[in-house]
Specification:
single chain, six-stranded mixed β-sheet, 28 strands, mainly beta, 5 helices
């Protein structure tokens, strides 16, 4: 059995004694806490798993098996092979996936740069609430196009994925204040518009953290009044350059980097690896974004840059106990 729901969380202290639990390697720390660096969780239909994977593997969620493996587990190569085999027949073996990385306290404290992103997303997006964008300079490179089709008498409109980088927000961010998640300080719309609490603004201003501007969110449920509690985060300054070792694509087995724009705007649909940026071109700000983005322009969805904190910025977030961010170590090349 190669699944283990771990006890590993950022902030644990790892030791030097390597062990394994249910096939997943880990280090047992001086505080008695288990740390796994990277795992991939797969969601696989039961009938697919029964045909091709070891008996007793994973957790049955009701027709779908949740299988969590360390990234170096040899079974992942088997799943990759099966996915390619099914794909060749117009099917999919894996119906969902999620990559998780966890770090020790020392790893986070010693990192020279950190990649962060709000955990919670919500809708409606700004565009649905009246936020306007100027698309005149947006990249029009088409990534994929699905023609209009019909199923059971219903016509499904044409779907186009294109780059879209270069669109400029030209109005305030208009949102429905009733839909903004509570009890977190960082959140985002499904279009990637980042919203922060007034507490974040206060911390940045009191500590003199650089690289951010904050604009009040205007609430459509309150006659477009500016919110006193929520602001849009805008990162200012020169964006940093991603190193080519940073992987992105549609899924962990994507070798073609679906979503990549040949004009160097997009690196792929989803971020698949840790972030590596070019050290020679990093401004001395506490919050930064990358020039290259991930995602695609599809309906309301928009590509987004990757968000980075300096060690000083991350320490400020931790000390103030600001909530809502995932964090990973970013690397310099």
């Amino acid at each position: 059995m190669a699944i283990w729901e771990g006890y590993s969380h950022s902030g644990t202290t790892t030791g030097d004694h390597e062990k394994s639990v249910l096939g997943i390697p880990f280090t047992w720390g001086t505080e008695g806490i288990v740390t796994v660096k990277e795992t991939i969780e797969f969601r696989i239909p039961i009938e697919n798993a029964r045909k091709h994977l070891p008996a007793g593997l994973g957790v049955d969620l009701g027709g779908v098996l949740r299988v969590t493996l360390a990234s170096e587990d040899p079974l992942i190569a088997r799943i990759k092979s099966l996915e390619h085999h099914y794909h060749a027949k117009g099917k999919t073996f894996v119906h969902g996936w999620m990559i998780r990385r966890r770090y020790s306290r020392d790893e986070l404290d010693q990192a020279k740069l950190l990649h962060v992103w709000p955990q919670k997303s919500f809708e409606p997006a700004g565009e649905e609430c009246g936020t306007a964008y100027d698309e005149s300079e947006a990249c029009d490179y088409v990534i994929s196009r699905i023609p209009e089709w019909e199923i059971s008498g219903y016509r499904i409109p044409e779907s186009i994925d294109f780059c879209g980088v270069g669109a400029v927000q030209v109005t305030s961010l208009y949102l429905d204040g009733r839909r903004i998640p509570r009890n977190v300080d960082f959140t985002r719309t499904i279009a990637g518009e980042i919203v922060v609490s007034s507490r974040v603004v206060q911390v940045f201003q009191e500590l003199g953290l650089t690289g951010a501007e904050f604009d009040p969110v205007r609430l459509v449920d309150r006659n477009h009044e500016p919110s006193q509690d929520h602001y849009q985060l805008n990162v200012v300054g020169t964006p940093v350059e991603l190193d080519s070792v940073t992987r992105a694509g549609s899924h962990p087995f994507d070798e073609d980097a679906y979503g990549r724009c040949p004009r160097s705007h997009l690196v792929g649909l989803n971020l698949l690896s840790e972030v590596t940026v070019k050290a020679a071109k990093i401004p001395k700000n506490d919050i930064l974004i990358t020039r290259q983005m991930v995602g695609v322009r599809r309906g309301l969805l928009r590509p987004r840059p990757l968000l980075l904190f300096s060690p000083c910025g991350w320490r400020a977030v931790k000390k103030a106990k600001l909530k809502g961010l995932t964090v990973e170590v970013a690397h310099l090349s």
